[in-house]
Amino acid sequence: MRWAKMISILMAAGLLLSLSAAAQTPTEVAGKCMTCHKEKSPGLYQQWYQGKHAAHKVTCIDCHGANEGEPDAFMHYDGLIATLVTPKDCGKCHEKEATEVANSYHAKAGQILESKDAYLAHVTAGSPVVMIGCESCHGAKVEIDPDSPNKLAAKSWPNSGIGRINPDGSLGSCNACHTRHNFSKAQSRQPEACSKCHLGPDHPQKEVYEESKHGNTYYTNKDLMNLDSDTWVVGQDYYVAPTCATCHMSATVDQASTHDVGARISWTLRPAISVKKDNWQQKRANMKNVCVSCHGQSFADGHYYQFDAVVELYNEKFAKPSGEILRLVRENNLLENPASFSNDIEWTYWEIWHHEGRRARHGASMMGPDYTWWEGMYMVVQNFYFKLIPQARAYDNAEVNAYIDRLLTEDPMHAWVNQETEGLKKQIRSGEMEQIYEEFFDER
Amino acid sequence: MFQKYLRFVRGVSVKRVGLIGVVLVTSSVITFIILELARLAGLLTNSYIGLITYLGFPALFIIGLILIPIGWRQRKKETGKSTRELLSERFAPEETRGGLFGSTVFKTVAIFTLANIVILGAASTRMLEFMDQPKFCGTACHSVMNPEWVTYQDSPHARVRCVDCHVGEGIDALIDSKLNGTWQMISVTFDLLERPIPTPVHQLRPARETCEQCHWPEKFYGSRLKTLVSYAKDSASTPAYTTLNMKIDAGRRGAQSGIHWHIAEENEVRYASVNDEREEMIWVDARQPDGSYKRYHNTNLVDPESVAKAEYDRVLDCIDCHNRATHIYEQPDKALDERIRLDRLDRSLPYLKRVALEAITNGYNDSVAAMAGIRNHVEGYYLRQFPEVSRTKSALIDSTIEVLQAVYNRNIHHEMNIEWGTYPSHIGHEGNDGGCFRCHNPNLEADDGTAISSDCTMCHSIIANEDRRAFKYLTPPDTADADYQMHRYLQQEFMRFMEEQTK
What we know:
The complex is a heterodimer.
Chain A lengths: L1 H22 L3 H14 L1 H9 L1 H4 L4 H5 L9 E3 L2 E3 L5 H4 L4 H8 L13 H10 L1 H12 L46 H5 L1 H4 L10 H7 L1 H8 L23 H5 L18 E2 L6 E2 L3 H12 L5 H35 L12 H22 L3 H25 L4 H13 L10 H10 L1 H5 L8
Antiparallel strand pairs in A: 1-2, 3-4
Helix pairs in contact in A: 2-3, 8-9, 12-13, 16-17, 16-18, 16-19, 17-18
Chain B lengths: L1 H11 L2 H26 L6 H33 L3 H8 L2 H4 L7 H28 L2 H6 L2 H12 L8 H5 L4 H19 L17 H4 L12 E9 L7 E9 L21 E5 L7 E7 L5 E6 L7 H4 L2 E4 L2 H4 L10 H10 L10 H9 L6 H19 L1 H6 L1 H18 L32 E3 L9 H4 E8 L16 H19 L1
Antiparallel strand pairs in B: 1-2, 2-8, 3-4, 3-6, 4-5, 5-7
Helix pairs in contact in B: 2-3, 3-6, 14-15, 15-16, 16-18
């Protein structure tokens, strides 16, 4: 009886062992990839070799191995492989991350063909620009070309856009942030990982971060950031400064890290008029939890008090009126040319909200003074009063003119244009001017 | 007898032309004999003497012989006298009187003519022999041939005569080469040649006729273990070893097919290249067992238009890979690796490899500047960066400089515009597209979609690849290593190959 039991245990163990051996890629294939690529693409090999994947025996074929029937699979020497490594492939090991990414706003970045931005690039510039100028950040829809050596159409590959639409149905591209083939944690934790895309006139997160105290202290103390550490909990593993990843993704003492980059964002600052996101209270609480790793509670609350007011101010004073002016111009058929973006005034409006208005809001969200005012709201003001309004008045339409006249006389925020400087200065000194904007500050 | 000779000589020395002719003939014969005796006695060793003995004197001898009748003819025209009248004027009557075998003068002329034929025959044989010597080829046209002469002397074929490969055997080859040589003499004299001389040299005899005199495909070549050492540019010039077991057999025994498969009797490879450099292929044909050819097209031509213009197609032979079997121009870093390996350069000098490489590749205008520049660079570097080394190891630094200057002079020839890399070698593969990879790359594709294999282990097992251990993959693989799988694979591959070979 005892013998029978032992034999059955041994057999079971043997079965398990053989199963685990079978699951591993055969040495002939795995070893062969490295042999050649060490010689033919030594940089790639060295990146991998120095990385954590190599340390854990994750080799070429483990990520690039393909299954029969996959549309982008092709025979390469003795192995069936695919060039494209998708979140589905990475998710075989990094399951939690893959799920979080799939549910994040990042994963949807490739579905932009219907957006105004895509329309603008396609129509006014042309598709070659779309590939590199839009899709290398947003992600392309990867097409299959049976004649291509790696089965991928040259117009959609290479592409590492964060919302790439992959042939296997998955969305995204992990190496947008986790640069291949080292996949270094340190690299993806640095602001540069994000600033391939989050920069420029319409969303200058990189520039705002650099001018903020956060960026300032990060670049001063980069050596102390412990960027290579396995765990990276703010306040525990590092404390000198936050990076983009710190606030939007990484762990705090009592909050787990997340690959859903929207999980801590309460406003959406992208559209013409900002709105609070679904479940924004929880998301804000998540962010404040990061803030208080280094700041007091009242500091975090105070920041949101000031930031909210800038967003509300922008919404009410400029976003809504300029939108209304454009609506009236369209409604009265005043535009000369039929296509969107074929009239002056449309560009003026576009730049006010899509560029300058966003800059002001992004500046405020991340405590960047210059972007809030000179690069942001200052430009909004100038173009609202001295470009948009004159262009709208040039149509000489009664309804449009009436709206503008009413705005500039009846709205206390705009009434300054018809007043004497001395009187306005007096209002500043007396606090009367401040009172006009009091409504934008929430109850505390 | 001597008196008789003098009388004859005086008799034929008609006019100044005839006199000059006689002097030329006599003096060249005498000097030829003296020089040849001196050479045989070992008194003369200078290589240029041959040039004078076997080319100069026979030429003067012939010119002299031609001048003598010219003088005679001039005199005849001037005086309007007949030959008999002139003869009786120049010679005593008893000498012109007819005997059993003609007159004394006639007999003397006949004897001298016979002697001339013997002398000329001997001289021209010696001349051809002399021209077959590497020394003649290498030094006669000094500046033109010097680079080839220098590299030849330092090559695996240094004991094989130039003519054995460049001329070959048989009267056709001889005539061809002499005709070519005449043109070469003209182009050297009037400076019509290109610098550097373009390769490949089309006048070479077909490689299979020459190379296979010594190296023949039926021989079993098996495999050969080869360790290449390269030294890093760090302070210790740390060595890294690449050990390859080269599979070089022609493939008589099935599975053992190796690199010389290309020249096995049953195989034939032919190709068309974009230009004469034979570096970019347009297509490559491989003969199949049924006699048909399978064609692989280059799907990645630099200029697809070139297909139409290309006219360079040929059957692959030894030279297509061993294009630098003899006149080997080194790559600067490889040249240094070799000198370090042979202990001619001492890597106890800090940053030796880096400094040496900079010194020989700095780009000098002529060899005088190069010699000074190499010295300045090396001396200056140690003086500035390692004053202590500069002081205590000055003799070593000095000998290092001399070795580097020799490396430079061996490989760089300003007078012929030969720089580093002017003549690339096609053996093996430097980098990612030369040598074997000209054809063995995924871009050469047949209509059925198959490509010419560029599988690393097809041509060599890999025992170490730029590693600090020369036989790394023969040691047991360590599961903790990142490239454990590669280690195991390469070890198994080598073992399989060797087992196959000993079956």
